[in-house]
Amino acid sequence: MKRHIIFGLVVATIILLWGASWYFVPKLYDAQSLEAGTFGDMFGAVNALFSGLAFAGLIYTITVQRQELTLQREAIKMQTEELKLQREETARSADQLEGQKYLLNFETAMRIVDDLLKKRIERLGAIIAQTDTGRVIGLSALKSMVRNKNIPESNRYIQDYLNITFYILQLISIYELTGLQRKVLYDMLEMVIQDVEIEFIVRAIDDENLLGLLKSSGLYERYELFSK
After folding, report:
1. Phi/psi of residue 198, each to 5°?
2. Predicted TM-score (pTM) above 0.85
């Protein structure tokens, strides 16, 4: 609205000056004393009118373009800010989803590990060894086998016990978890496993991959400490 008013004032001023020239020029000169050529030159004011109007239109166009450019810059700036906010919101949403995914994975892994630990105890209780004083089961059976260096390779319950133990270790190592979550699960296993079990496991295996799982969990380091 402001630029329309300015443009109107400029046009009105040009027309006013052009009209005034028709009034004041004859007053300054005696019309009869003017030569025909001189008098005809007075109509050159028409050219001045159109030139002035063209100049006014140019000014108006420049003003409009300048204001439009200003509005475009403001719009671009607002769009840029909006895109920035959208990116930040997307990043926050992605972080939240990532956190929820790891939490869900951790809860699932913890539930599976807990169930496997219970089955592991069941298999441990089914392991039997014959000693000089009679039959022993569970941890006592493992102690007897370690002491006598006699670990049966074809015993079903021993194999089940070892398989479950290493399945727990493998699950923890490959499941998509954070480092802290993985450590919590390793700590769960370490709290329930006895030194004699670790020694029994180390003596019962000859697979480098299984040995690597023991080292990753920290159980092998514990074995080295108490076996010195």
Report:
1. -60, -45
2. no
Q: Are 152 and 227 in contact (CB under 8 A)?
A: no
Rounded CA gap, 202 and 162, in Å? 10
Q: Where are the beta strands (DSSP E) in the chain?
A: 128-131, 134-137
Phi-psi region of 218 (alpha: psi -120 to 50; beta: other; left: phi over 0): left
Instruction: Look at residues 127, 112, 206 and name the one whose alpha carbon lies nearest to residue 168.
Output: 112
Q: Which of 134, 135, 127 is nearest to 200 (CA)?
A: 127
> SS3 for 30?
coil
* Nearest in space to 169 (alpha carbons), one of 202, 205, 131, 217: 217
At 63 the pLDDT is 76
Do residues 109 and 175 lie in contact, with contact meaning Cβ atoms separated by under 8 Å? yes
Beta bridge partners, 135, equal 130
| Residue 83: both structure tokens together | 């895109």
Q: What is the pLDDT of residues 52-88, one digit of tens each?
A: 667 767 777 777 788 788 888 888 888 878 888 777 7
pLDDT computed for residue 126 by the predictor: 92
Bridge partners, 192 (sequence order): none
Q: Which residues of the chain have pLDDT under 50?
A: 32-34, 36
